[in-house]
């Protein structure tokens, strides 16, 4: 596994898979944002009816959930897309805990049988079991922590990504994740400007952060404005990550529309522009094939997992997953009724 900057996409593959920019890399870049710890504040709880149902069976085995039998969906591909709160190129480091947090995590699930694809948007504050890594990458222990912190353990490149993948897989009951892409936050402004800016309607009050973002107006976000729009939390809306995630989805939809207006050669330019900010274990052929599938397949609505937001003893934000909502997401993504 290596940094993507050492494995650039071949021109022929890029042309065949122009849609992949909007479907995979752009999905990630549009919401790859950083978050300072001081921005994290207590959020409003999201209520959900809980049950004791838990998906624990092996991936190949049928399960029973709420009295209904389900079998695993065949021919699934699953990829974790991450936005890392680190500025500059993805160079990595020698520290065991300096990898940067994965503030944005999107799980892409492609169903080759039913020809659909869907994205699970994971709340970065989700409290899950996270592996604590040592200097050489060995697992020292596990702890309950924000899922975003899993990427912080490791070298900031492959080890960090693999640890983040492990945390998401564990949260989903051990489901296989076939690959990952991680982008540092600077890629947002770069790509935003490459498409000529992204138009959005401002539905929040950004007065104290960026007066140019006037509530109620429709503007074309440029450069750092895009970062402010998808990144800001403190002093905006109810200051919850849930509200920020909603703005990220709004931005993503608008960005995809702008991507649809680009020529096929744009994918080459986009990859070149952000490749230094990227780490992935996906080869160019895999990415190209994935892009073709996502162009042809039906896109299903975003999924999220309900939960309750709060703060821990140190004042850091937490998001306690509703277990029934989690199991519903697992069943919806990975199983079908028998």
From TrEMBL:
Gene3D superfamilies according to UniProt: LCP protein (3.40.630.190)
Domain Cell envelope-related transcriptional attenuator: 102-260
Transmembrane spans: none
Pfam family, one: LytR_cpsA_psr
Family note: Belongs to the LytR/CpsA/Psr (LCP) family.
Entry protein name: LCP family protein
């Amino acid at each position: 596994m290596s940094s993507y900057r050492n494995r650039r996409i071949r021109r022929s593959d890029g042309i065949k898979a122009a849609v992949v920019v909007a479907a995979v890399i752009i999905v990630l870049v549009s919401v790859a944002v950083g978050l300072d710890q001081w921005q994290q504040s207590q959020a409003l709880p999201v209520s959900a009816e809980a049950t004791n149902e838990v998906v624990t069976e092996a991936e190949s085995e049928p399960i029973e959930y709420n009295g209904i039998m389900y079998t695993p969906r065949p021919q699934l591909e699953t990829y974790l897309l991450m936005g890392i709160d680190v500025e500059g190129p993805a160079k990595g480091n020698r520290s065991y805990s300096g990898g940067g947090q994965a503030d944005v995590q999107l799980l892409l699930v492609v169903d080759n049988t039913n020809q659909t694809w869907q994205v699970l948007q994971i709340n970065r504050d989700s409290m899950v079991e996270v592996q604590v890594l040592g200097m050489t990458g060995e697992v020292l222990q596990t702890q309950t922590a924000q899922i975003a912190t899993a990427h912080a353990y490791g070298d900031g490149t492959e080890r960090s990504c693999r640890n983040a993948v492990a945390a998401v897989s564990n949260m989903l009951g051990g489901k296989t994740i076939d690959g990952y892409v991680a982008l540092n936050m600077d890629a947002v402004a770069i790509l935003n400007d490459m498409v000529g800016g992204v138009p959005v309607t401002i539905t929040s009050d950004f007065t104290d952060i960026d007066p140019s973002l006037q509530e109620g107006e429709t503007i074309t976000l440029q450069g750092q404005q895009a970062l402010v729009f998808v990144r800001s939390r403190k002093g905006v809306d109810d200051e919850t990550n849930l509200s920020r995630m909603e703005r990220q989805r709004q931005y993503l939809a608008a960005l995809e529309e702008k991507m649809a207006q680009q020529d096929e050669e744009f994918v080459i330019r986009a990859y070149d522009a952000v490749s230094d900010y990227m780490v992935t274990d996906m080869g160019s052929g895999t990415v190209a094939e994935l892009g073709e599938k996502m162009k042809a397949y039906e896109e299903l609505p975003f999924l999220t997992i309900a939960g309750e937001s709060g703060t821990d003893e140190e004042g850091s934000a937490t998001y306690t997953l509703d277990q029934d909502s989690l199991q519903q997401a697992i069943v919806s993504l990975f199983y079908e009724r028998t």
